[in-house]
Amino acid sequence: MAANYEYEEASGHYDDQAAALRQQEVGYDPNFVPDSVKSFVVHLYRHIREKNVYEIHQMYETSFQTLSERLFKDTPWPSVDAVAHYVDNDHVFCLLYREMWFRHLYARLSPTLKQRIDSWDNYCSLFQVVLHGVVNMQLPNQWLWDMVDEFVYQFQSFCQYRAKMKNKTEQEIALLRQFDQAWNVYGVLNFLQALVEKSAIIQILEQEKQGLEQFTATDGYDYSGGSNVLKVLGYFSMIGLLRVHCLLGDYHTGLKCLQPIDISQQGVYTSVIGSHIATIYHYGFASLMLRRYVDGIREFNKILLYIYKTKQYHQKSPQYEQILKKNEQMYALLAICLSFCPQMKLVDEAVNAQLREKYGEKMGKLQRYDDEGYGDKLSRRQRYADEAFGIYDELFSYACPKFITPSAPSFDEPLVNYNQDAYRLQLKLFLSEVRQQELLVGARTFLKVYSTISLGKLANYLDVDESTLRMTLMTYKHKTHAVDSDGKIISNADVDFYIDDDMIRVVNSKPVKRYGDFFLRQIVKLEGVINDVDRIKVESAN
Amino acid sequence: MYSILTPLVDCYPKGLNPQHSGRCFFLSCSLQGSPRSVPPVRYIGKVLRRNRIRPKMGMEKEPQKPQQVSYTVEQLVAVNPYNPDILPDLENYVNEQVASQTYSLDANLCLLRLYQFEPERLSTQIVARILVKALMAMPAPDFSLCLFLIPERVQMEQPFKTLIVLSHYLETGGFRQFWDEAAKSRHIVEAVPGFEQAIQAYAVHVLSLTYQKVPRSVLAEAINIEGLALDKFLEQQVVNYGWVLEMGQGGGQIIALPKTEFNHPELKKNSGDAVPLDHITRIFPILS
């Protein structure tokens, strides 16, 4: 019986050509539903009702893309009204359809203000149903992630759009005034927060640690007849909150929102590549801005290695381009972290090779203090420092999130664009951090090659007076010792030293090998082998 | 055929009739909201100290129970991080932190966030106090965390320009310049009790990261205490924190600071191989 329902993609191919032709001739008719679309919605609806996650996922990931590519390359999908009667006018299905409809529109066309507002309303209705109704669907994690991801993206896109006030028509301004609640920052944050709370996901993760509940083991799916929708939406909303807070420049709060998810381990966030990348990208960026460089390096390294090894499996995915873009950005962020905190031992060989290829030259310049180049010593050093400053600016601008100004413009004052304000502020503050650490490059260069050196001698090498050198060394210590979330001091230092009166003593820090963890892992492994051996029944020969 | 299948939603929210076509529903309840009536789904029916917080933002109001439970501001921030109504309470709380020499980064960031959302409500006096408190929290990066949220045009004004300069000196170990500048701006920093002691504590922190033995003059400059007052200060440190006073080769006094893993790197190795308990628990079943 199930075979009859199998959705055949090929069946509609001939009609598609006719439909595509028709669209070219008549233009976009929102009420015209090609047969293949009809078949698509009917089957998708049925699979959702039957909770067939596998088929839903196939149709969502593959068929929707194929149809979009074939029929709706530069027009929207048919309107929800035109397809509603094929799906019993099902309210929730129509919300889901519209969610995809808008996502497609945002990806391929540029949405009008009215469409942005309508999309906001659709999310409101959809989330209200999830929050206040009892949803019994089982949807693929990919889709649920995309919902949260798109919700935040459209919010960010709206803020950027609104901030470009110069070219707005009177009509647009009237709409903006009228619907001032659309994509309102309070609304966005409260929806995400409500999803987190209503789903009780934080408690679920807590209980899972004690073995009282299963969530990660089933990838968030519910195999006992329940629904995964609220739980998993709540879970992904924590990542959504991290992202919104990063867009606002609130890194501390962003990391706090992510805290219930243990990113040192696999989890539901790693079950979807998009969510995995978004989590680590924002976590790493926030760590960088909080000067927790080692945390940033560690996580960037892990995910870049993962992408390096698994990239080929995502080639056909609609997210592939996005994956590559974030991959490049994270290499840039890793380059920044490593320049502030040159601890190459934290970086895997494969990642290091990629990093050298992409940013080797730039990183060399970031850590260059002096050499035998032309010009006199002092102006040469200044030139190198300025050059490094320019590279930091470039890397940061390329790799940072698209910061937003969340507040609405005041419509009464002369209309100016303010879409760059948030970015400029974050860049400026980042660059002032760069300036504060500028002198450390020189100090590092010499500390690496001495085991004992007097303050006077090093000051002479660096062409500064002794009190400036004392300041520089204190700066080095302060900047390399971060305060973690529990208020504990964590050393990120690459070179360890201390001052004894007026002598600097450098300590060769050997990399600490973690034998404890190694033995634990081997013990577990050995136990497994012994168990396997025990299970083998040896037939006695006699 | 379909009728035997379960509907996608078992139970609809109040006021939402599943028979409505989608479009009808969107128009009827989303687009015509009064300000702040649409999105948030949070109900606030609580009494905060003397102030009643009204549930302005929920679409459906929950019947207000006459609760007399009072919430601390910290709890309020934890429960209502995105609620503009708590802004006045957070402002009062900043003043309370100043008066009682306490500190809450989370509450202050929450307030700065609300200012960021509604810049017209921003009070420069309150922001200045938050920033002074953040300086006092050094070596934590709180000052930058706050700056990330304060619009650039505000940062260009006084007293913020001065505070940013002060922060720069502290970040780069320029204690001499810091104390000079602070002396010129007494009106800003003296409004917050405990300021001097907090900065001195930070200075001692950075010194003990950097020095095993620090010359008296360097210490004096960093904490801005000299002469007899410094002798007295040192006396207390010797008794309470194990500082040791020695004579240097040049005849000047030098001070041996307490050992930490940062100025005595050999102390660090022990902690390097520690295994957290929850890792050990993995092998409990095997050991038993």
CATH class of the domain at 211-288 in chain B: Mainly Alpha
Strand order of the largest sheet of chain A: 2-6-5
Helix content of chain A: 55-70%
Element string of chain A (H = helix, E = strand): HHHHHHHEHHHHHHHHHHHHHEHHEEEEH
| Integer average pLDDT of chain B | 74
Query: What is the oligomer described by this structure?
Result: heterodimer
State the helix count of chain B. 16
Percent strand of chain B equals 5-15%
Largest protein interface, residues of each chain: A-B, 102 and 93 residues
Could you please say which CATH topology of the domain at 211-288 in chain B applies here?
A: Arc Repressor Mutant, subunit A
Give the termini distance of chain A in whole angstroms: 54 Å
Total strand segments of chain B: 6
Strands side by side in the biggest sheet of chain B:
4-6-5
Low-confidence parts of chain B: 1-7, 11-68
Quick one: biggest sheet of chain A?
Answer: 3 strands, antiparallel
The number of helical segments of chain A is: 23
Query: How do the SSEs of chain B run, as a string of H and E?
Result: EHEEHHHHHHHHHHEHHEEHHH
Uncertain spans of chain A: 1-5
Helix content bin of chain B: 40-55%
Q: Please name the CATH architecture of the domain at 211-288 in chain B.
A: Orthogonal Bundle
What is the compact description of this entry?
Chain A is mostly helical. Chain A is built from 23 helices and six strands. Chain A has helices spanning 2-5, 13-26, 35-49, 53-71, 80-84, 91-108, 113-132, 141-163, 170-178, 185-198, 201-209, 229-248, 251-258, 273-289, 293-310, 320-340, 349-366, 377-399, 421-436, 440-447, 455-462, 466-480, 515-535; strands at residues 134-135, 452-454, 481-483, 489-491, 496-500, 503-507.
